[in-house]
Amino acid sequence: MVHAHDHTTALPVREDAVAALGTRVHLLGAGVERVVEVIAGRRRMRSTEVHALVVIAAAEAGGVPATPGDLAQPLRLTTGAITGIVDRLVRCGHVRRAPDRADRRRIRLGCREAGRDVAAELLETLGTGRPGWSAR
After folding, report:
1. Domains and CATH numbers, the chain
2. Which residue in 50, 67, 69, 125 is a FRET match for 76, CA 20 to 30 A apart?
3. Is 101 helix (H, G, I), strand (E, B) or coil?
4. pLDDT-derived band of residue 10, with 50, 70 and 90 as boundaries?
């Protein structure tokens, strides 16, 4: 038997419950990825570009615009691959580059309206499970 510990109490956790939770998390991730693929396809984008827009929009909403390097870890890509993604997003009018105010050698990324629309579509779809949304 496996035990989950907080700092005061040991709670028994059944191994089959842990396995079932792992399966559900995996299926949730696969479902999210399918939604990303559909949105990307509708907008003639790559799924990694949609993911990048969500990271950029979230950083911007948090008050600290992302750098290209900030995208590498959550997207699990090399900085070289990130450069290609950012270049495409800038070319398509989804993202803008701007020098960092504190360190002009660094570049900060911000979403243009088109990029915010893509990120919002994904987050609204996932958040509401919009009735009538279909993968067609």
Report:
1. 14-126 (1.10.10.10)
2. 125
3. coil
4. low
